Fold:
Amino acid sequence: MNYETPLFFRVMEYANAADRDVIDMVSGNPDWDPPAALREGLREYADLEPDRFQYPPSEGVLELREEIAARRGVDPEQVVVTNGGGEANYLAMARALERDSGTEILLTDPVYPYYPGKTTMLGGTQTFVGTSADGQLDPSAVRDAASAETAAIVVNTPNNPTGAVYPEGTMRELVAVAEAHDALLISDEVYDHYDLSNRFASALTVDSDHRIVTNAFSKSMAVTGLRVGYAIFPPDLVEAAKSRHMLVNVATTRPGQYAVLNALRETPTEYYERNRRRLRERVVTFTDALDASGAEYTSPNGSFYVLARFDGFPGTLENVMRLIDDAGVAGMPGEAFGESKTAWVRFALVTPRVEEAAARLTEYFE
Amino acid sequence: MNYETPLFFRVMEYANAADRDVIDMVSGNPDWDPPAALREGLREYADLEPDRFQYPPSEGVLELREEIAARRGVDPEQVVVTNGGGEANYLAMARALERDSGTEILLTDPVYPYYPGKTTMLGGTQTFVGTSADGQLDPSAVRDAASAETAAIVVNTPNNPTGAVYPEGTMRELVAVAEAHDALLISDEVYDHYDLSNRFASALTVDSDHRIVTNAFSKSMAVTGLRVGYAIFPPDLVEAAKSRHMLVNVATTRPGQYAVLNALRETPTEYYERNRRRLRERVVTFTDALDASGAEYTSPNGSFYVLARFDGFPGTLENVMRLIDDAGVAGMPGEAFGESKTAWVRFALVTPRVEEAAARLTEYFE
Structure:
């Protein structure tokens, strides 16, 4: 079996190997500092007794699960601490496909490319539901696409790549569609700390046994390399998910869990506010420059991304490589995110050089 | 689908919840110190620039892959850095089952219980090949069991739970059986640093496109909670394994990779020798005491474990709980490792209280 491997690492490698200065706007790696308490947690961990270097509980360190559960208003038993959001989504989708309630996964178009890749790997099939120009998902379109064959509906809010934030009404209706077909709504909320609209609504606001919420500290704490995330399962689905987690990974890295727990407890809200402020400023800077260049673009309500369309320059891998070599700006080809965005290029605003990148693009497309 | 979840964590929880002092000999968690350079690596990592907290390459940090490859005599391209030995075995078994070359996995009896659990999870079937009283595997028995349906042969040397170390001739013949049926030999060598016999032979000594070697730093560096391991694939199988790794976990924790790399470079061989010496002494202490108690036992050539059989006291979960409550010694039920060891209890010699544990057992069975 061959899976479609997401292109992120390939484009990053190409950009790193370029013969010139390239501004990296490929992947959602924050360029700002992790919380001081996260660094401090790693330092503290390094000096712990030997037994603290051994297996944590498979489902996660209890204090961390309790801290997550308290913040999310769920029972700690529902929480599995995972190797980042990646494993959280993998466990959620595996659970959906193993319930003997369909083999189809409903995804959005555009889509975060790991979801279709995971679907194929897990033996499921993908059906894509289009979104509006501003990235909103119409629940009635999802209702029309859903059937007895639907195992799960996977959404991402705030959304990568569109920047859309789904309102509570959408989340409520998506859960209802899942319930109507004995499917699961899987809501990937990894950008929840980067809601720029104050309209973000977690799927947890809708009480149901038919929704799984996934998340991670990768973006909120600027530590995509730490690999600590979590999934919140309905009580009757969590045991099987814990089994798969144990059989695949045994457990999630313990120094990472220790550091995240320390950061959750000790980080002032100002840390998160500052990061949102910075992101807001970058959105304005980048989109103002795109205005000047005459490009069409999306203005995100959340997450890190701006999609831009340049006249006569479709979002192919080839064109993205050309932008790297000739303009010195690395983005992601829109075609990586699905049919609807083949004309677009995605730029991640996680570099202090956003203004310079925009100037380079303006000059290149002049 | 329900998988058989290995019992380790359940028994550990029972032991931890006991109302009395219990000597923990359940799981293979070393009780000795990690290398000083590993702790130092974590401290150094805590002070790195923000970009070092972001995604490492999915297949692992290049310098770590190069260091592993140099030590194992393979191409760095063949190395995937995994979330511990657990993920390494998962990737290896998934690869074997997805080659359209059979759905059966040949395992030994007794067996490390994660292997049959992973097999079921991955949609394969298990066939068990018995081993001799001292844990040796007769390659001709494997040859007799193998067929066109065989996707993989999974072995563990030095062995958990028997302590057997397979000689080079065995490894060579196992690879030949795999080749004869277009199957893969998967050799889990996580206890390679605890060969007490000097007869350990890695499957890497046999050049073949039909073998995968898995390993981890969990045991050799006494860091089962760090979750850094690796798998070495034949060149034509590695790309698909990297894809699955990316789709399941995205990447392996970066501070862990940094710390392991530092420890690989800076740790004197005396560290590993000291740990082997300690283990050898514990084997003598424990088995001498078992002699006194009249129990039958295995004397390991490698790994951490002694299997003991007490008259009229089969190795059930119930009896193991009784030993926890009444003798204050926690082991693993032999029945967890397969049909052939239902009469036995496994004790992990990873506590400084080995002598005391043996005395408690002697007293209990008097």
Observations:
- The radius of gyration of chain B is 20 Å.
- Chain B touches chain A through 60 residues (CB under 8 Å).
- The mean pLDDT of chain B is 96.
- Residues 110 and 133 of chain B are 10 Å apart (CA to CA).
